[in-house]
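Extended Data, record Phosphate transport regulator
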Amino acid sequence: MRFRLTPRETSFYDMFAASADNIVTGSKLLMELLGADSSARAEIAERMRAAEHAGDDATHAIFHQLNSSFITPFDREDIYSLASSLDDIMDFMEEAVDLVVLYNVEELPKGVDQQIEVLARAAELTAEAMPHLRTMENLTEYWIEVNRLENQADQIHRKLLAHLFNGKYDAMEVLKLKQIVDVLEEAADAFEHVANTVETIAVKES
């Protein structure tokens, strides 16, 4: 077997950047969902499903490259963790959109817009950060800000739960809406997992 001995396998950087750019696409679809009526939501869900499939393809490409590369830019476990966490974000965003459509939710509760705005900002920061993996420079502000956003998302989530359980919704509606806001919170957590993984990689490489 021939091994191509190069200082570093650089295609990983491009694949991580592509995966993060796809997450920005997903966050924009979430924003579209906020202003869409029920008739438009099914079409948004279809586009989100296509974006999620593109995310899966990107993740599989990273895993394939990982399995076929003799030399990697950083630890294999960290590459796997970063790719998996990026994939989780898309999965959660797609699940949230799908639930809105499947449950035929007429109106999302106040505060969901704030959740989605936090996710959109985290998506932008993540996409901006991925190219910096090449040099491991200018990343500190990224993971600090994403951790701050995740704390903000926690606060929004708690307020949403308090709102859902204030007695204005019937029990079945509470169950539906809670599942949606919980999945959006999981997406925020997944952004933090990505940021924490990037921090771990940067510390190891410093």
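Summary. The CA atoms of residues 67 and 194 lie 21 Å apart.
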